[in-house]
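Appendix B, example 12.
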Amino acid sequence: MRSFFKTGRSTVYARTAAVATSHPMSSLVALDVLRAGGNAVDAAIAAVAVQAVVDPHMTGIGGDCFALYTPKGASAPIALNGSGKAPAAASVEALIDQGMTEIPLDSPHAVTIPGAIAAWSKLLDDHGTMSLGDLLQPAIRMAEEGYVVQPRVAHDWAQYGPRLQRDAESVAVFLPGGKAPAAGDIHYQPKLAATLRKIAEGGRDAFYTGEIAEDSVARLRELGGVHTLEDFAAAQAEYVTPVTTKYRGYDVYECPPNGQGLGVLMMLNALEGYDLSPEALNEADRLHLFAEINKQVYHHRDHLFADPMHNSVPVDELLSPDWAAHARANVDMAKAAPPTVWPKVAHTDTIYLCVVDGEGNAISFINSIFHQFGSCIMPPKSGYLLHNRGAQFRLIKGHPNAIGPGKRPLHTIIPGMLMKDGKTVAPFGVMGGQYQTMGHVELLTNIIDRGMDVQQAMEAPRSFAYNGALEMEPDCGAELLAAMQARGHEAKWAPNPLGGAQMIWIDPDTGVLAAGSEPRKDGMALGY
């Protein structure tokens, strides 16, 4: 039971439809679309287009997206991969010959062909009811007439704005007067408004052919990229088969590799062997257990996850009871240990939103330019930022995730869908880069195992073991930090809040929607 003496948001309950996004204007626009007769897909596209304007450090038309969509009455979600591919001329050997050991975040080689517009268009064509032109109008107005900068956006803008300094076009747009806008300032993006208007009028082809593509390719090649107009013209989103596992009687669905959603299912499979209730597991034991399982999942991810069109990913083996047993066998509850790859498979910043409409359609949707402000590269005439997802490629010959022609990199962005007995329970997601796999697991186990409501599950303190360290949010408390250090973890306070979740839970008996929105962000859940 929530105590209303403590600060925090209430879960939003609604009878007809609900939305949850990380920005208030995005939530409002999504609700406006639903109330005007649009469906969940229409509302999601309108909302993400708005966030491409008002959350410029997190997402944009120069990024990628993934979606899970469950139409009314469907027994499983449809999965869409809207991630872009490396140019046809991309070569791991060429970059190694240039002396690179990894792809710099602000390099043109970090820019894969943006997949967002192709994905938005495909979703709308196949499952929407409104036109892309109509749904882009709120975003166009905000870019052209100005929008008010929200507090968390302003905080991140000030912190990461210096990354923009290497690109004069980006500086002119995002550091007006030489500084980041503050909370309450009004910001304008007229070039982006003009680009969005072209897309509204010409659809997908307006972005991937013609003036916008020419501007993008010219800028990338000027900086040393190998992108071509043919690379842009060939971009397309693809339907894929979601991966799934059962957890405590629920069916959890994720997009398959090249995304990291498989890791969520691996972690849940391992954790199902434990009683995670507060009565059975104290908080120190829970954080330690999650850290140890999480390290093993991410270790396998970094060794094995890749584009399945170019490399075989052992999905069945990694979802097997044998892998879960291997993971549990490698957990010592008394001390931290380094992860190892299971011998059977050994190989020699983002926005998320969800919508449930009045018909029962549910969409889980995530869109990203990867690092804050992406690559910081802006095509000068078009006014949008290109992402840097290609920085996830490895510059190791023979590695499954090595860069290559027409190849998709490992992706961190993952939408989730929870179902039970063939019915949709909840679209959900957690933005936050590498943290997202752990974020999905923390969110689901907080509700299913620990009895929290949707909003409480989001507000609970978070931790994340990755890259040799265990980051903990300060609300975990100094005693818990010390307990983790005593078990051998390199535990430290997280420098920034970990992740940002959204979720809409559907009551199977009444149909009432329980929507929650991340308190670490500016957004909100709304419903009617």
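The CA atoms of residues 50 and 138 lie 7 Å apart. The chain has 19 helices and 19 strands.
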